[in-house]
Each structure stands twice: as C-alpha cells, then as structure tokens.
Amino acid sequence: MREKICLGGFWEYSTPYSVPVERVVPGSYHCVGTCTYKRNIDLHPATGRRALLVFEGIAYQGEVFLNKTSVGESMQPYSRYIYDVTSLIVDGINELVVELADLPAVFGPSEGWENSSGIVRDVYIEYVPFEYIKDIFFHQNLNEKLTKSDITVEINASGGDSARIRLGYDGREVLDAVSDPESMKVTTEFLYPSLWSPENPALYDLTVELIKSGEVIDTLTEKVGFKDFTIDGNRFLLNGKPCFLKGVCRHDMWGEQGFTLSDEQIETDLQMIKAMGVNFIRLVHYPHDVRVVEAADRIGLLVSEEPGLWWSDMQNPGVTSGALEVLKRTIIRDRSRVSLAFWLAFNECIFTEEFLKDTEELVRALDPYRAVSGANCMNLKMTKDLFSKYNWDFYTFHPYGPLPSMVTAGYGAEESYATLDEVISHLSDKPLVFTEWGGWWAHDNPALYKMFVKTFASNACEREDGLQLAGMCYWVWNDMYETNRGLPACVDGILVEGLVDIHRNKRVNYYTQAECFHEFDKLAPSYPGEVEITGLDVKAGKQTVIDIYAGVDQAVNDEAFIKALDDAKANSGFFQHKKTRKLEIGPVLPYEIRGLGSLRVKLPASRPLVAGTNKIDVSVETVGHTLCLIGMTTLSDAFPIAGKAGDVLAKLIINYDDGSKQERDLINGKELCTTFMTYGSSRIDPRAGETNRVITLKYDKNWERYCINTLCVPVDSGKKVKSVEITAVSPAYPVMLYGITILSD
Question: Which residues contact 267 (CB under 8 A, 6 or more apart)?
Fold first, then answer.
C-alpha cells in the first residue's frame, strides 16, 4: 500500500547571514537571491518499502539534502522531481534542507511576469512498495469511425514481472487486460468509447497493477479519456469534426499568492473561463500546477503547456538545456492527460535552429502522438521557413495591433505592420493559431475586441480560397504583477490587460468575450447582402433570357473580377487620407434574381462577366427589337468620380447572323458609370444618362454599396443577333455584365 506524508506547513527559512524565521510551504515569495528552507521530520525507516521525496515545483533552482546528504540532481523550476531517499532516512528526526537560488539561477527569472521564489508547490514523502510503478503513459488511437480505440499503457516500473490494467466508467468495470509477455506494456482494444470533448468531458478510471509471481504488489490510478485530436490540412479536427480553438492565455497566479493557488482558486478560474464559451487554455508561459491540468480534464478544456521561456537568450546553453529539462519533465508528467492538445516549446524568443531541432526530437521521443510548436512572434518568413524545415506541426503568431488591418508583422520584418489577411495567407499550408492577441489595444475596448473576433470568425469557417485560421488565444485572462513595462499597460506594478483583475473581478471584456464566443458561429460573415430592385416597365410580346455564362471559362472570368476588385480598393481623388477601401465581396448578387419589374432575367448569384483585359463575348442566336444589357457599370472610379463625361470607356459590338455589325461607343456618364455608391466619407448617386437603375446592392455599408443599371439598345428586328461583344478601351475601366434579355413582338 502507498502512503503519503505531506510536508507542507511551517519551515525554517533564512537568507545568508540572517536569523531564521518560520515560513509556510508551499508558498510564493519575493526573490531574494539565495535562501535556505529547513525542517525536521519524524520518520521511521521504510522497512520493506521505498521512500520517495517528491517536489511538485520550486522557483527557481534547488539543491536538496536529507541528513546532510545530497538526494540527487539539482531541481529546475516548476517541475516535478522524485528522489528515492530510502537509504537516507534514519529512525527518528530527519533533517530536510533545500538550498534555493532565484535571481542567480541560469534558467531562472523572466522579465515577462513577476517571478516568485520558494517551494511554490506541494512537497511530500510517499512510501511505495519496494518494487513499484514509477509512472505510466496511457495513449490511445481511435479508428476512422471513432467506434474502436487501440489502447497502449506503457508502465515504467522498478521490479515486477507483468502488469494488468482495469478501466472503469460510471462506476462499472468496462475493460480488463494484461501486459504483453515479458514486458511492461499493455496493448488492447476498446469498443465504443465515450469520447472526451469540451462539451462532454468523459473520463475513465484507469487502474494499473504491478504483478509479481501472480500477486499484485503495487497499484496506481489515473483519470484518462478518449479523444481524436488531429491535423487536417490547415485546421484541427476533434473527434472527426473541425475544432476552432477559442482560447485565453492564463498565468498560474492569483493576487499576492504568486504561483501558489488553492484547489478552490484553480476550480474557480477554470469554471469562469469555461463559462465564457472557451474551449482551450494556453497555460502560459511555464508548466502550471498539475492540479490545473487535472481540472481541465474534468471540466472539459483543451490545454497546452510550455517550459518557461520569454524573450530568453537562446544562445545560452544553460537556458536551453534548462528549458529542455523542464519540458521533458512536464511531458512525462502530463502526457496521459486527455485535455492536453499539444506542446509549445517557447514563448516569444528569437529561436535558434538547434533549439527547434532539439525540441522536435524531444517531443517525438516522449509523446509522438501530439503536435509540437512554439508561441511565436518572429517575422512571417522566418516562421514559415524554420517551422517547416524542422517539421513543426503548426504555425503560431502574435498579431498585436490597433486594427485587424494593422497588426505587427513580426520581429525582424521589413515592414512594421501587416493585415490579418496577409498573415493568414502567408502561413496557410499548416494550421495557424494566434497564440496571443489583444493586450492593451483591446483592453476595456469591446468594439475593437468584437472587430478582431469577427475577423477571426470569418477565417474560422471553411473558405472558398482555402485559407483558414485554426485558433486564437486572447491575451490575457488575469491581471498579474509585473513592474517593468510602465504605463499604459502596467498600473501600480500590475499588468492590467486581463479579462479579470488579480482577484478575479470581471472586467467589461469578460462579458464581451462571453458574448462573442457563445455566438461565435454567427459572427462569421455570411454576407447575405441587401438587394433593392427598382426594375423596368417593359412592354413586349416576348422576352428571351440569354444565358451569358454558356461557354465562358469561369476561372478566367473570376480572375479578371478579383483583379479588378483589388485594383479598385485604392481611393484617389480629393480625399486627404486616401484610405483603402475594404472590398470583401464586390458587386456580386447574393442570390439569383428572375425579375426586374416586368423585365424577365436570370441573374445568378455569381460574379458578373468582366470586360477588362479580356473582352466579353456572349452567344445570343435570337431575333428581337431591343437588347437589354443588365450591368453597364464599371468596377472602377468612373463617372461621376473619375474621367470626363463623354470619354469613350468601352465598345459594344452586336454581331448579326448575316455577318453585319452594329457598333456603339459606351461613354462615361452616358452608357456607363461607376458601380460604387460611396466615395470617401459620402454616399453618392452615380447615374449614366441613357441607362436605368434596376438594382442597388449593399454588403458592408461602410464600403460595399453598388448599383447595377440596364442599357436598352434597339437592334434590327429583321436579323438574328448572333453575339454581343463588349471590349474595354482601357483595363482601368472594367465593364460588368450580369445578364441579357431580348425583347420581341
């Protein structure tokens, strides 16, 4: 039987040359340089058993002595260390001493948060059988239909000759399996597992038994779960369905308590976060208490973990080796946790190729079933080149900025700012997670917060262009002490960018995020468009609607339309600011239209034909007396914005069956005008004198207001119209055509 003796409580504490005082362990305190923690423990020798001394985390480097003898290797920060002290225990009073270094530690304090000193997490002695289970690695692999899972439990044991696992769910045993012959690995299958997800955090009770000569000599229990978290192109799938990570960045700190939180505080934090509609927490920037990950399993929150790097010197082998050691210990501690989504190897560092290579190899060796990346703010080229070179599984980026159209382009970029679209477009061949965004810009600014989240939502759904965002994490969940930035981000030594303050009082954006995340799927612009039809009053015995798209290479036409739309984004003219238009859709009908008043049409919900660099050539093969051309606007700044009234912008040619032609100049302000119904800060009413306004079309009313006209051209009713051609005089004035109807008696 295992027995745990808690070593929490009052310890004797001293700094060099100081008088010892009593201090509570675990606890987080201000850094002092070096200090000593000491306590006496009344113990009895571990007869027939082993005694393990366990530290769940210190800050930042520690040497441990029991009865004046070193128990083993130095401790690095935040990490679980287990020492076998069986041979060092004496019967009666045992002296336990921990020599701590904080400021002088090589892999020590960071400038990114207030650092604490001390034995910051639980410390205890655990008596275990002489032959015992050291740790286990539970992993599973679901089949394509998610109806069956392969299970592997790797048991690291001291002694024993076989192992057995039992799996329980909802109070009943559902699986019983034994290890492979002469090994400590159990491999088996399990049918119809209840899958873990944020919506259904189903957990199983795993019991692992170490067996020797047919007898159970040690037992270990864990909570485990079944999930399938995979990468499909540039998105994540959870249990076969697209999973956009709606996340926050959380520091493992609370008030003045530093890294030392109670069970109730951890539960409160994660429940408050879950209540906002969050499905993912980035546990920044160092390993959090194991109780946090256990709570994430139970509550239903995906998490990531990282080793404690923040703008750290990646050229210093003491720093990188310390980070790799911490990452290794965290992987071993938490790789069986179902909530663990992936590993992040650093935060905001000028990373080296050697470190990328070392961390990729470390993760693949210890946990080949999860993805690896790093929380990154380097420029886009460096990110893409090196993340790809070293087979990191997905991209990350930190797009801080005042607008979605103006975010940082990354450290070392040639230009200071980029747009979110440019970032997503550049990093499009793998999943892209914005592992931080927000900060001071969005702090207490619900309007800007919503603007960013709407942009994220528009990239979270499957897009026609194949670009997609895989997830995002708001910086930051909780305020924390940090004294080196000053105003405006830090007020009285506290970084005040959180959704909650240091004591978890909610700020305005807590409610904003909850609103956005709960309505996230509805935030993605569906671009329904607003269409107002004016129509025409036509008198005709017969109307023939022409399919203008028959025989058209739609890909070529789409390319011409997209180019014309992109060229039209620049505002010229008399505007001082000359802001770039935001044209997401362009003058595309949101749904098919069959009638414009009494004029019959068939205008599909697709991009119009464009005469720019290429001409429009539509087969007609119909007789009639009037040709109705629907469109007759330019996707550019024509009349009344630009060009002189009377300038010839395009040529219309009507070809008859007998080889004759009817030609007509399309003149600026007469047959043609701009499609734009806004210019700069004003709504405008563009008109071409010989056309009729038949449709007004609106998307984003700040930018996207368009008009569609109809030009009625008399034709020779004694001849069959073979085809209609429209050729732009200059590609600067691309003419659009949505449909043709021929009127006849």
Answer: 295
Query: What is the pairing mode between strands 49-55 and 81-84?
Result: antiparallel
Q: What token pair was written down for 378?
A: 């380097």
Domain spans in the chain, listed from the N-terminal domain onward: 3-129, 132-224, 232-523, 530-744
Q: How many CA atoms lie within 13 A of 154 on its CB side?
A: 8
First to last CA, the chain: 100
CATH number of 3-129: 2.60.120.260
CA-to-CA separations, 729 to 149, 634, 675, 736, in angstroms, rounded: 65, 12, 18, 14
Question: Is the distance from CB of 451 to CB of 515 less than 8 angstroms?
Answer: no
What token pair was written down for 380?
């886009």
- Write the class of the CATH domain 232-523: alpha beta
Report pLDDT digits (tens) over 2-61.
999 999 999 999 999 999 999 999 999 999 999 999 999 999 888 899 999 999 999 999
Q: By CB neighbour count within 10 A (0-12 exposed, 13-18 middle, 19+ buried), where does 608 fall? A: buried
CA gap 293, 340 in Å, rounded: 8
Strand 204-212 versus strand 185-191 pairing type: unpaired
CA dihedral sign, ordered 596, 602, 603, 604 = positive
Quick one: three-class SS letters along 664-699?
EEEEECCCEEECECEECCEECCCCCCCCEEEEEEEC
Sign of CA dihedral 378, 379, 382, 383: positive
Q: What is the pTM of this model?
A: 0.80
Q: What is the DSSP letter of 239?
A: T
Rounded alpha-carbon distances, angstroms, from residue 669 to 638, 675, 691: 8, 12, 10
Residue 715 near residue 546 (C-beta atoms within 8 A):
no
> Looking at domain 132-224, what is its CATH homologous superfamily?
Immunoglobulins (2.60.40.10)
Predicted confidence (pLDDT) per residue in 317-359, tens digit: 999 999 999 999 999 999 999 999 999 999 999 999 999 999 9
* Residue 581 DSSP label: P
